[in-house]
Amino acid sequence: MRIGEILEAKSTRDVVTIRPDAGVRELLALLAEHNIGAVVVTSDGTTLEGIVSERDVVRRLHSDGTVVDNTVAAIMTTAVETCGPDDDLDEVMATMTARRFRHVPVVADGTVAGIVSIGDVVKHKIGQLQFERDQLDSYVHQG
Amino acid sequence: MRIGEILEAKSTRDVVTIRPDAGVRELLALLAEHNIGAVVVTSDGTTLEGIVSERDVVRRLHSDGTVVDNTVAAIMTTAVETCGPDDDLDEVMATMTARRFRHVPVVADGTVAGIVSIGDVVKHKIGQLQFERDQLDSYVHQG
Lengths: 143, 143
Fold this sequence. Notes:
Two copies of one chain form a homodimer.
Chain A: H1 3-9, E1 17-18, H2 24-34, E2 38-41, E3 50-53, H3 54-64, H4 72-75, H5 89-99, E4 103-108, E5 111-117, H6 118-142
Parallel strand pairs in A: 1-2
Antiparallel strand pairs in A: 2-3, 4-5
């Protein structure tokens, strides 16, 4: 299964993004509004500059004792592991579990095309494996 | 696959817990130290009183503009969905994806026995389904 198929299946195709010069208060509002854990950071709406997550907020709050007066740029992760729409779900999944990422942005032709969460991965990988197992099972039992 | 098998396979069997009267600063340190996203809340180390996550911190920071002067009790989630060691992974997984939980505490005989994260679920469910599919596949192709 390709990453592009997962993006197509998502209920909303719009990627939630934020500008790097936005404040953390705006980020908190965006996370709450969409009930999500991470947002893609981009100045022009297309070029990926980073990703910023609940974890980035909580870690900065821990290290500095305060976080809301920062910009998104000050707390975001810039060394972002990305994937493309033609990448295989299995490989992206392996990266997520090995490196403990919960979100991987999808970039196509230099443009942010979406974000894949560990929840998306669970849903689709399990669906795929159950389908394959059921097919083999019915093949075995039809004889 | 039962939840108990997942707990047994985890690299550390110790459950990270925090007291409800602990401060949020202590919680932030604990999350950073163990590189985890949620902690079980208990006064006596055995009785589950709640669960507190990065999301609880971030949401309170959004609604109040500040969070570090709170106790864990003030921000934790008390209506916790739990599971038992004999529960089936599939059912717990279905609850997690449907209700968007990332962590489910495991309670055995009224005592906190562990916590299962969505990362644990991905790892084990995928391993199980691949094993079943491979077994059927080799059965089909041996004839």
